[in-house]
Amino acid sequence: MSFVFKSIFPKVIDNHYQGAKLSQYLFYFLTAVTLWRSQHHLLAADGGAQSIATIPLDAFSSEAASTIIGVFALWGLSQLLIAFLYLLVSIRYRSLIPLMYIIMIAEYAGRLAIGMYKPVVTAGDAPGALINLPMVLVCIFALLGSIYRRGNH
């Protein structure tokens, strides 16, 4: 169990990744997705609220719609900051990939829990809401792959 802790919190933070290649390449892909979604929430006219999340902005007053769009842009900024952290890990500090998977699991599990506790009314199925549980599962398996070391059982 000690090697699991050391894999998630390495003593030396460097570019030496020792886990499964599939987990590494999946991390790169998820980094790209996080970069894309963050810029979309920041730059799209509706912040992705209606065009992606299917929130019926046209059913709200212009002030309420503007507030929702502003909150989506703020969310996009938060996503951009975490995406830059993922990008930095991808390029320079790959030994932290297992820790980043813990963060991804926390993010998607948190979204799932908040969505159940405080549901958002949408006109359709928002892709973000549909993907939360599968992403938790994918990230758990990717985490396991990222901490796997040949010879350590």
Describe the structure.
The chain crosses the membrane at residues 64-89, 96-117, 129-148. The protein has 153 residues and is mainly alpha-helical. The protein has one domain (20-147). Helices cover 67% and strands 0% of the residues. Helix 2 packs antiparallel against helix 3 and helix 2 runs antiparallel to helix 5 (127-147). The longest helix is centred in the middle third of the chain and has 30 residues, at 62-91. It starts with a helix and ends in a 6-residue tail after the last helix. The model has no long low-confidence stretch (mean pLDDT 93).
In short:
With 153 residues, this protein is mostly helical.
Descriptive keywords:
elongated; transmembrane helix; 153 residues; 5 helices; transmembrane; membrane; single chain; mainly alpha
Radius of gyration: 18 Å
The poorly predicted ranges are none
Order of helices and strands: HHHHH
Main β-sheet: number of strands, strand sense, barrel status?
A: none
Fraction in beta strands: under 5%
The pLDDT mean sits at: 93
- The number of distinct β-strands equals 0
Helix content: 55-70%
Structural class: mainly alpha
**How many domains, as an integer?**
1
Task: Draw up the topology in text.
Blueprint: H1 2-8, H2 21-43, H3 62-91, H4 97-117, H5 127-147
